[in-house]
Every structure is written in C-alpha cells, then in structure tokens.
Amino acid sequence: MTGKLVILSGPSGAGKSTLAKHLLKKKNFNLAFSVSVCSRKKRNSEIDGEDYYFLSIDEFKTKIEENEFLEWEEVYPNLYYGTLKVEVERLLSQGKNVMFDVDVMGGISIKRKYNERALSVFIKPPSLDVLEDRLISRNTESPENIKKRIRKAKMELNYARRFDHVVVNETLEDAIAATEELIGKFLEQ
Ligand code: 5GP
User: Fold this and answer.
1) Tens of pLDDT along 37-53?
2) What is the CATH number of the domain that holds 145?
C-alpha cells in the first residue's frame, strides 16, 4: 500500500468540506474521502455513509473500546467524531490517496502517525468575524452551537503552526488554487 494521506483541518466553518469536495474531483490526485464516524444528528442535506457514518453515542463508545479508531475526539461536548482504521485501510488497499476533513487535534494525531506519508494543511478563516458570518449563513447550527464553535475556533487557531502548511480561505477560488498546488507537489514527491 503506497497511497498518501492529505489532511485538511481547521475550525468548523473555515471551508474544509467545500475544499475537499473540489479536490476530490481532481482525477490526477486520485483522492478518496475518509468517511468519519460521528455521534451528532444527521443534517437534512447529509447522506449516511457518504458524509459520515452516523452512530449513537453508545455505538461510538463501543468502537472506542474495541480499538477501531485511528483517532477520535469529543470535538464538542457529547459530540464524538472519529476516523476508522478500517476505512483508511480499505481506501489505501484500493490504491487511493486518502483525504481527511478532521478537527485540529485529529489532524495533528493522523500526521504524527503517518509522518512523511501525510500532508497536513490548516485551513484558516480570514478572521473570527468572517467565520461567525459563514457559520450563520450556512444555517446548519443553532445560535448556541455557533457560539460553541467560535469559542473552539479561538483555541484551534493556536495550533496552526503545528501543520505543514496554512492556507487562508479568503476566497474559495484562491484557497482551492493554493491547496491544489500544495497537494500536487506533495503527491509528485
Ligand atoms: P461538523 O459537525 O461540522 O460536520 O464537524 C465538526 C468538526 O468535526 C469539523 O471540524 C470536522 O472537521 C471535525 N471532524 C469530522 N470528522 C472527524 C474525525 O473523524 N475526527 C476528528 N477528530 N474530527 C472530525
């Protein structure tokens, strides 16, 4: 298995999943998305097994006990998210490079496990105000959850320097171009 790993991390609302969707369309990158497990409720727009594998907290905890995760985090109180070892192995065994959309702690932990085989990119919002506006207009979270996400984002921004690269998502077009260039170079090596 010679595939590589591309990790997109950064605060919720920074634009990771939009970027990931674009990057997955680039045929020459040969990227497949690592579908995470999570314990939050499915949003209307989401598909189980495509966006996440949606599990109850108890089911999630069983998987922790059975050591099924490459990494997992309680990203928000009582909301668990994790990357399954079997998911990554499955994609690598298909000859794919694997792309992750994970929180900052998850990103650091995958990079630590895979070192040179992984590229970690921190997607940074231009400012916390812009991040808040984006979370509001995305219309997926309650005002209370938005507050939680902004509080967490302040903490997460301190970890940007632990990543291989930081891309500021000022405009989607520029962020796509910058990320594509980084990934292109990394996959060529
Ligand atoms: P959301 O609820 O908006 O889909 O995701 C919330 C946060 O959880 C995002 O920052 C997302 O990147 C992160 N996340 C998604 N999957 C995983 C995972 O498998 N592990 C970790 N550590 N974080 C994840």
Assistant:
1) 999 999 999 999 999 99
2) 3.40.50.300
Cα of 141 from ligand 1 centre, angstroms: 14
Distance of CA 115 to the CA centre of its chain: 17
pLDDT for residue 50: 96
- Mean pLDDT (the chain, rounded): 96
Range of the domain at 34: 5-188
Total residues found in the chain within this entry: 189
3-state secondary structure of 116: helix
Residue nearest to atom 15 of ligand 1 (CA): 102
Strand order in the sheet with 36-38: 52-54, 36-38, 79-84, 69-76
Q: Please state the pTM of the whole predicted model.
A: 0.96
Instruction: Give the chain's domain count.
Output: 1
What is the rounded average pLDDT of the residues 119-126? 97
Amino acid, res. 58? D
| Ligand 1 centroid, distance to 46 Cα (angstroms) | 14
If you measure from the C-alpha of residue 165 to the centroid of ligand 1, how many angstroms do you get, rounded to a whole number? 19
Relative to the CA of 11, which ligand 1 atom is closest?
Answer: 10
